[in-house]
Amino acid sequence: MPGILEGKKILVTGVLTPASLAFAIAELAQREGAEIVLTSFGRAMSLTEKSARRMKPTPDILEMDVNNQEQVDALAQTIKQRWGRLDGFVHAIAFAPADALGGNFMTAPWASVQTAFQTSAYSLKAMAQALSPLMVEGGSIVTLDFDNSTQAWPFYDWMGVCKAALESVTRYLARDLGKQRIRVNALAAGPMKTMAAKGIPGFERFENTWGHRAPLGWDSTDRAPVAKMACVLLSDYTPATTGEIVHVDGGYHAMGGEVPPEPPD
């Protein structure tokens, strides 16, 4: 039986280690029939290459620093020459300098905030601008989020602000790209044990308490639920869904407090 992404041409960013959410998405997309390419650059390239060798077949890796518009545009030209079209891409890119996290909200300098915003939020627009012309038959853009639409998280600081901005960018792209039948959605996962999470001071506080409030529970090592939802969003099974924050968090976002294991007496 063909997979839900059979014949799709998909670009996946953000693959570092096999623990990356992007790795889980790329691997499952392959199993669902997609042909994929990855991106990386600089010192991260060796990590991406090592992880890519664990996929079957091993995908090609194209160089792209998302903060370098010339490289983003060159990526689009390479994909055009390779495939002639693109059916979707996964934006799994975020970064904030240490002085913009961990309780440094009030003291973070503009240079660090600017870096965080450009890398974590504006980059989605930069990629969409370059790659959407290749989505000649419509397509899907999925960005990885940690929902900051209505709350402020401890220690997350300017990355939280940038994630809120990313959600807004998602909605505006959905508005502008809808006429091309391109869907744009954010996938808001619960806390996951990834390399990116290690860079967030206080992450273990999210990880250790999340399951108490999530009615479905939460396993921060199980990337499969996120990968499955990403592949659904990339597929043709969500033709009328765009501008959404799709939560894969065990239901945490919908609860007002911890869910008791047993009803009160």
Summarize the structure.
The protein is α/β, with parallel strands linked by helices. It is 39% helix and 14% strand.
Descriptive overview:
This protein is an alpha/beta fold. It has a domain of 182 residues: Rossmann fold, CATH 3.40.50.720. Helices cover 39% and strands 14% of the residues. The chain has a 7-stranded parallel sheet, with helices on both faces. The protein starts with 8 loop residues before the first strand and ends in a 17-residue tail after the last strand. The mean pLDDT is 94.
- Tell me roughly what share of residues is in helical segments: 25-40%
Principal-axes geometry comes out as: globular
Which fold does the CATH topology of the domain at 73-254 refer to? Rossmann fold
- The tally of strands reads 7
**CA-CA gap between termini:** 50 Å
CATH architecture of the domain at 73-254, by name, is: 3-Layer(aba) Sandwich
Determine and state the CATH class of the domain at 73-254.
Answer: Alpha Beta
Instruction: Output the structural class.
Output: alpha/beta
Oligomerization category of the chains in this entry: single chain
Helix run count? 8
User: Which superfamily, in CATH terms, is the homologous superfamily of the domain at 73-254?
Assistant: NAD(P)-binding Rossmann-like Domain
Query: Main β-sheet: number of strands, strand sense, barrel status?
Result: 7 strands, parallel
Order of helices and strands: EHEHEHEHEHEHHHE
Radius of gyration: 18 Å
Task: Report mean pLDDT, rounded to a whole number.
Answer: 94
Spatial sequence of strands, sheet with the most strands: 3-2-1-4-5-6-7
